[in-house]
Amino acid sequence: MSVLEDLRSREAEYAKWRHEFHRHPELGLEEVWTSGVVAEKLKSWGIEVTEHVGRTGVVGVIHGNLGPGRTIALRSDMDALSMPEEGSCEWKSQNQGKMHGCGHDGHMTMLLAAAEYLSQHKDFKGTIVLIFQPGEEGAGGALEMMKDGLFKRFPCDEIYGMHNWTDVPVGQVRCRHGATMAGQDFFSIHLKGKGSHASAPHLSADPVLAASLLVTALQQIASRNIAPLDPAVISVTKIHTGSAFNVIPETAEIGGCTRFFSNETGELLRKRIREVAEHIAISCGVSAKVEFDPIAAVLMSDPKLSDAFLAAAREVVGDANADFAELPQMASEDFSYLSQEVPGAYCFLGGQAPYGAKNLHNPCFDFDDRVLAVGAAIWVTIARNRLAA
C-alpha cells in the first residue's frame, strides 16, 4: 500500500479533526485551545513536544531509527481570521467574529496526519521538526517564534511550507524557484488638522480633504514610480474620520498595505508613500505621521529544495499533476522570515472552496477535505526523501 493509499484510509477521521479546528477558530497569538489540541495529539503518538514557543507555538521532534543525520522542518500555521463566517457547513465557527477563512485548519490537520504516520514509520536517518506556528495572519508569529530561539533550540538544515490554493486544480501542486510570494507592509497615515463647523470650512484645516487627495495620489505611485515589469501594489483598505454630518473633524486616519517582490521596491514604496503623504498634508495645512509595520518579507524558495519538493509531490499526485508555477503570488506569508534563516521551499496545494466562496479570506470559505490525505502524503514523502539513509 502506498503512503497516499494508507493515509486515504483515514481521511474521514482527518476530516473530523479538521472540522473540530474549524469550529473553534482563534486569532493570531491567541491560539491557546488550538495549540493545546495540537500538543496533545503529538504527545499521544510519542513525539517530543515543546509548547509556548513564540507564545502559543508548538514544536514536535521525531528522531529517525537509522541514526543521526540532517534535520528538516515542516511548518503549518494555526491562526484564524477576524471575520464572521457566512457558510452553511455543519462545523461552522462557534466563536463569533472569527473563522478559519484561509484553511489553516486544514494545514494543521495535514501536518498532524503526517506526524502520526512518521512517528510510526521511523525508517529514516536524522530528525524531523514539526513547527505549528501561531499568528501568520499579520500577527508576526514567525518572528515571535524566532525571537524565542526557534532555530537555536531546534537547529534545522532546511524547511518546507505548504498552503491550500483555490486557483490550482484540486489535488494538483505548484512550486516555484526564487520569488514565490510577495513581501508586505501595513501602513498607517495619521492626519491632524483643525476642526470647524461644516458651514465655515475656511476656519478649518481639513484632514478629510487631505485624506481624499491622498488616497488618489497613492494609487499613482506604483504606476509612475515602479517599473512596469516590477510587480507592486498599494492598497488603501480603511479610512477613519468624523462622527457628525455638520462637523469638519480634526483628525483622519488612512490604512492599507503594500506588496512587492524585491527589498529595493519595498523601500521605494515606503519612501514615496511618506513623501506623498507629507506633501499633500502641507498643501492642505495639516500634518501627517506615517508608520509602517513589516508583515512579511519576499518569500524566496531555494531552487534545489523546490526541485526536491516538486519531486516529492509528483510521487504522490503524478507527474501530470505537479509542476512549476509560471508566476509568483501577490499574497504574502511570514514563512518568508523562517526561510531567510534556514533554506526553504514552498508549494501550493489545489483545492476548491465550497459554499459559494471562490477564494481565500472569504466569509463562505471552507477547506477542501478531499486533499487532506494528499497534503499529508506530500509531507511524509518530502521528509523521508530528504532523510533517506
In short:
The protein has 389 residues and is α/β, with parallel strands linked by helices. 35% of the residues lie in helices and 25% in strands. The chain has two domains: 3-181 and 299-387, Zn peptidases (Aminopeptidase); 183-296, Alpha-Beta Plaits, CATH 3.30.70.360.
Structure description:
By secondary structure, the protein is of the alpha/beta class. The chain has two domains: about 5-180 and about 300-385, Zn peptidases (Aminopeptidase); about 185-295, Alpha-Beta Plaits (2-Layer Sandwich). The protein is about 35% helix and about 25% strand. It contains eleven helices and 16 strands. It has helices at about 5-10, 10-25, 30-45, 105-120, 140-145, 150-155, 205-225, 265-285, 305-315, 335-340, 370-385; strands at about 50-55, 55-65, 70-75, 125-135, 160-165, 175, 180, 185-190, 195, 230-240, 245-250, 250-260, 285-295, 300, 320-325, 345-350. An eight-stranded mixed sheet has the order 1-2-4-3-5-16-6-15, with helices on both faces. It has a four-stranded antiparallel sheet with strand order 10-12-8-13. A two-stranded antiparallel ribbon has the order 7-14. It is elongated and about 80 Å long. The protein starts with a helix and ends with a helix. The mean pLDDT is about 95.
Shape-level CATH architecture of the largest domain: 3-Layer(aba) Sandwich
Assembly state: single chain
Query: What is the end-to-end distance?
Result: 21 Å
Give the ordered list of helices and strands.
HHHEEEHEHHEEEEEHEEEHEEHEHEH
How are the strands of the biggest sheet laid out side by side? 1-2-4-3-5-16-6-15
For the report, how would you describe the main beta sheet?
8 strands, mixed
| Unreliable stretches | none
| Helicity level | 25-40%
Report the CATH C-level class of the largest domain. Answer: Alpha Beta
The overall pLDDT, averaged over residues, is: 97
